[in-house]
Design a protein that fits this description.
Organism: Sandaracinus amylolyticus
Low-confidence stretches: 1-13, 102-108, 254-263
Protein name: Transcriptional regulator, AraC family protein
Domain HTH araC/xylS-type: 150-247
Oligomer: single chain
Strand order of the largest sheet: 10-7-4-9-2-1-11
CATH superfamily of the domain at 18-137: Jelly Rolls
Structural class: alpha+beta
CATH class of the domain at 18-137: Mainly Beta
CATH architecture of the domain at 18-137: Sandwich
Order of helices and strands: EEEEEEEEEEHHHHHHHHE
Strand content: 15-25%
GO molecular function: DNA-binding transcription factor activity; sequence-specific DNA binding
Keywords: DNA-binding, Transcription, Transcription regulation
Largest sheet: 7 strands, antiparallel
Radius of gyration: 20 Å
């Protein structure tokens, strides 16, 4: 009996994940469209604002968690702001990283979903201004950053280029090593070493945007091996240090931004 070959079934078409880094004044902006089903983790030494630009964006910040409606804005304020996002396939969002200056190590660390009544395409500087206004008019934060965690975070930020031993970090914080890891997990959802990697890349982004070359930046933030720096940077930002530097410099030069692949 003669068999007829069956044509292969065409694969379903999927829009490609796109990541765009840009700058608006002193603000750094990450825009993600057509995200896969995955988690995203962001750490920044100051305010972080997350705006959902579609359905399917959930968050965890400290002890708070929930889902952002399209257009809603999550504001995480305080030193070592950390947020984990979970996206459904095809979701879109943007993250605006605020100005680090003026952040006190003991300042309140809080996360709030605020109704800013802004469009999903509003300028990042306007989003930042509206978030500041909303926080000023909001009730005082219910808690302050754990003093032990504040000391540990400050020590990490000051010693990025040095070898980090958890025993030394625990001594600075004044707790046992195991308890230190629990404090980091409770307040930031990260281990001390993972938090340090995020802070290193955050510092590297600022240096690259200011015009420093990739090799000097890698050494400045404590990476002796360039390939290790590249892997860590890409894992956290979705792109390479060189591509990131070109994108933010183009944005600063002509007011535009360039789409980057985050394969």
């Amino acid at each position: 009996m003669e068999r007829t070959a069956r044509a292969p079934r065409p694969a379903p078409s999927r829009a490609a994940l796109s990541v765009r880094w840009s700058r608006d004044a002193a603000l750094e902006v990450l825009e993600v469209d057509e995200a896969p089903s995955r988690s995203w983790s962001f750490v920044w030494p100051a305010r972080v604002m997350v705006q959902a630009r579609s359905a399917g964006v959930r968050f965890r910040a400290g002890r708070q968690r929930g889902e952002l409606a399209c257009g809603a804005v999550l504001v995480i304020d305080g030193p070592g702001a950390h947020v984990v996002l979970h996206t459904d396939r095809g979701a879109s969002f943007r993250v605006v990283f605020g100005r680090p200056e003026g952040t006190s190590p003991g300042a309140a660390l809080e996360a709030r979903v605020v109704d800013l009544d802004v469009d999903v395409d509003v300028a990042p500087s306007t989003l930042d201004e509206r978030a500041r206004e909303a926080l000023r008019s909001a009730p005082p934060a219910p808690r302050r950053l754990d003093a032990r965690l504040a000391r540990a975070c400050a020590y990490i930020a000051q010693t990025l280029a040095d070898e980090l031993r958890l025993e030394d970090l625990a001594a600075v914080a004044g707790v046992h090593r195991c308890h230190l890891c629990r404090v980091f997990a409770q307040h930031l959802g990260l281990s001390p070493l993972r938090f340090r990697a995020q802070v290193r890349v955050a510092r590297a982004r600022a240096l690259l945007a200011a015009g420093a070359d990739c090799i000097s930046v890698a050494h400045e933030v404590g990476y002796c091996d360039q390939s290790h720096f590249n892997r860590s940077f890409r894992e956290i930002t979705g792109t390479t240090p060189g591509a990131y530097a070109r994108a933010v410099r183009i944005a600063c030069d002509d007011g535009g931004a360039r789409w980057l692949s985050a394969a």
